[in-house]
Amino acid sequence: MHIVFGNYGDGTIALIQWAHENALDNVSVCNIDTGFASSSDIWQQQLEKGQALALGYGFTVKTLSAVMTWSELALKRKAFFSAQFSGCAGWLKGFAFLDYLDEVDPSCEAVIILPKHVMPARGDVLLQEWESHSPHFGDRRVWQPLYNLAAPGFYGLIRRAGFSPLHHRSLECAPCIHSTAADLSRLTLSDQNRVAILEQSLKQPLFAASAFGGAQGIAAVVEWAESQPLKDKQSEYHIGCGTPFACGE
User: Hey, CA dihedral for 89, 143, 166, 238, is it positive or negative?
Assistant: First the structure.
């Protein structure tokens, strides 16, 4: 069994296409609903189109729900996760995915396939193709077949799948604690209101004002972000707690 673990961003789409072109058998594509995904129509269409792509290739598709949503987790902790104090990916994705793996693969024979890939700006020089016993996935094997794929090959896979590259991180959490100004500028009003309600409940801002030009609160942070040069940074894909769980991909 091959289980693609991703979030229907550029990396996941490229990996689905790669699995099809390389005729992998018994493929399942699994993603996690964090309860904090973007409400934008564009992102919902990306999800639906990505799942349709996998199904069209004869793969199975599974969407798991986080044990606690991002909002529930913040309220339970009485504090937000942050870029400095991360850990949300393990809670949101790790537990739900491990439960699923134990259900469908109790003998630990499945290969977990992740969509990570090397890009010069991302500091992925230590990325390897295989990990024989990953502690994040119950000591199952992890395969990263795109690990040394350069940008032309990577984006070629996405285009052959019938997609236009997003050129930004997936929006399974909107916002992510590692959001750039460009990410924040994509937040819908609904996404902003959701964060504002949490900020009021916790009596603290999600983002430190010092990191966002002194802006205090999500509305001010988004206003600041919209005033910045909107350059997406590939280097932001693989940072923080989400590294083992394909956050951003």
Answer: positive
Longest CA pairwise span in the chain (Å):
53
pLDDT, one tens digit per residue, over 178-233 is: 888 888 999 999 999 999 999 999 999 999 888 888 989 999 999 999 888 765 54
Mean pLDDT of the chain: 89
Which CATH number applies to 2-170+234-245: 2.40.340.10, 1.20.1440.230, 3.40.50.2000, 3.40.50.620?
3.40.50.620
Distance CA 199, CA 217 (A): 7
Element (H, E) at 153: helix 151-160
Q: Which residue has the tokens 């491990």?
A: 98
- Tell me the two tokens of residue 56: 């069209």
Q: Is the pLDDT of residue 240 over 50?
A: no
Q: How far apart are CA 241 and CA 246, in angstroms?
A: 10
CA distance 14 to 142: 17
Q: Tell me if residue 248 falls in helix, strand or coil.
A: coil
Going from the C-alpha of 10 to that of each of 31, 116, 166, the distances in angstroms are: 14, 10, 6
Under the banding of pLDDT at 50, 70 and 90, the label for residue 143 is very high
Q: What is residue 15's predicted lDDT score, i.e. its pLDDT?
A: 98
| Contact assessment for residue 235 and residue 121, using Cβ atoms and an 8 Å cutoff | yes
Nearest-angstrom CA–CA distance, 63 and 5:
10
3-state secondary structure of 111: strand
| 236 and 177 Cβ atoms separated by less than 8 Å | no
- Domain positions in the chain are 2-170+234-245, 181-226
